[in-house]
Automatic annotation (TrEMBL):
Occurrences of domain COP9 signalosome complex subunit 3 N-terminal helical repeats (ranges): 23-274
Highest rank taxon of the organism: Eukaryota
Keyword field: Cytoplasm
GO cellular component, one term: COP9 signalosome
Protein name per the record: COP9 signalosome complex subunit 3
An individual GO BP term: ubiquitin-dependent protein catabolic process
């Protein structure tokens, strides 16, 4: 078995122009991983002197060996050093992505473990977020929709920091595949990789190894982040997938996903449409803890004062809901029910496009307030002035009409239709023969 110095010499002597160099390095690193684990003190020397343009895969294997051995021995200093190395090289820009893709079973678990170590062991969530985002930018193309275990670690950090925007590009609407994180046997790794390079058309795809718990955490944490963004429909879709993951035993995350499914569904549509196909283990576990949530669903769909019914369920099971972190969502449900109740009354006061009342919410109290009619005083004054001018104009024209000769003559013609009139031989004026002075 060669020493670390011997491995370093072998890797650095491989020419960069060698087409099979990446596969050779990956095989060497996997084959002699034990060398790094047995001599963790020499890993730093290897990382400092290894050419990353050739040995990117081997460098990740060395860092993972340092981390795993340190965790196994409860050596916090060694684990800290491994995380620092990983962060440095991921952010350096010197690693070759195509080489790292040859060791997904090394690089993705290492990235996931490093992020979780920052989050849980060191309680440094922000450092974990920075590390996760750096690794995601290097290793993951969000347009491909392929999920890795690193996604679950990123989402966990974002939930802790309440940073939805950082995770949003990686919450895929359509998951197209999973990263194959299975360990590859050292005997067949080079032969298989060279064969794939020479023959791109493979009759059957290689089996993908991906632990279901990381898919569950991807769905669970992703749904929580979407609920915080109020994208309830997408959150419900992820939760449906989470509770349908098969298994002979259920987990805390899957059971809590079912609780969140109840809350999100009641908040979104006011009803529960339970998907078929849940595992029997989850069904059995739900019977032990699901009564408060079933009572909540019954209260939301009941007749009468539904908000008060939900409040009663909340008060009766406050300890359970508090432990589950569900009080905030239930309070939102109560608020929505109260608003809907008041709006149903307000609809009766809304006619002919005119709003006669509006809903006002302040200090937790919902009020129905009559909307006072708003009058534009300047507009009213100008219209009154215009009306006064028109009235004066009408009076003036009426006075002119009474004195105009043409209008007077027409008025005299109209008098001929009256029962008493002048003699027929008289003209329309005052003739001499008809003068009253002759009598």
């Amino acid at each position: 078995m060669p020493s670390i110095e011997g491995l370093l010499k072998i890797i650095n002597e491989i020419p960069e122009g060698d087409e099979g160099a990446p596969e050779k390095v990956a095989e060497i690193a996997r084959k002699y991983k034990d060398v790094f684990e047995k001599k963790p003190g020499e890993v730093e020397h290897f990382l400092t002197n290894c050419n990353p343009r050739i040995g990117s895969a081997a460098m990740m294997v060395a860092i993972k060996a340092l981390y795993d051995s340190s965790i196994a021995k409860n050596n916090e200093q060694g684990a800290d050093r491994a995380v620092e190395f990983f962060k440095h090289f991921i952010e350096s820009g010197n690693l070759v992505l195509e080489h790292l893709k040859l060791v997904p079973d090394v690089v993705f678990p290492l990235a996931r473990n490093a992020v979780n170590y920052c989050l849980r062991k060191k309680n440094e969530a922000q450092i974990g977020l920075d590390l996760a985002l750096s690794a995601m930018r290097l290793l993951v193309d969000p347009n491909e929709g392929i999920v890795s275990s690193l996604h679950s670690a990123l989402f966990a950090v974002c939930v802790r920091l309440n940073n939805v925007d950082a995770a949003l590009p990686y919450i895929y609407r359509n998951v197209t595949g999973l990263v194959n994180e299975s360990p590859v046997s050292t005997s067949d790794s080079t032969t298989e990789n060279v064969h794939v390079r020479k023959q791109r058309t493979v009759s059957a795809p290689a089996p993908v190894y991906f632990e279901s718990k990381y898919m569950l955490l991807y769905l669970y944490y992703g749904a929580i982040l979407l609920m915080r963004r109020n994208e309830l429909r997408r959150a419900i879709s992820l939760l449906e997938s989470a509770i349908l993951i098969p298994g002979s035993a259920t987990t805390v995350a899957q059971l809590d996903a079912l609780k969140k499914f109840y809350l999100a569904s009641l908040l979104y549509s006011g009803k529960i449409i339970m998907p078929a196909g849940r595992s029997s283990a989850l069904t059995r576990a739900w019977k032990l803890v699901g009564d408060p949530y079933s009572a909540l669903a019954t209260a939301v769909q009941s007749a009468g004062d539904r908000a008060s019914a939900v409040e009663k369920v909340l008060n009766d099971n406050r300890k359970v809901f508090t432990e589950d972190g569900a009080v905030g969502l239930i309070t939102r449900i109560i608020k929505e029910l109260k608003e809907k109740a008041v709006l149903s009354v307000a609809k009766t006061l809304f006619k002919r496009g005119k709003l006669l009342a509006e809903v006002s919410i302040s200090e937790g109290i919902v009020r129905l307030e009559v909307v006072s009619e708003k009058i534009n005083s300047h507009d009213v004054v100008s219209k009154l002035e215009r009306l006064n001018v028109l009235r004066q104009e009408m009076e003036r024209m009426d006075a002119i009409a009474q004195l105009h000769p043409a209008l007077l003559q027409r008025c005299m013609k109209t008098t001929a239709l009256l029962p008493y009139c002048f003699p027929a031989n008289e003209d329309e004026g005052l003739g001499m023969s008809s003068s009253p002075l002759e009598y």
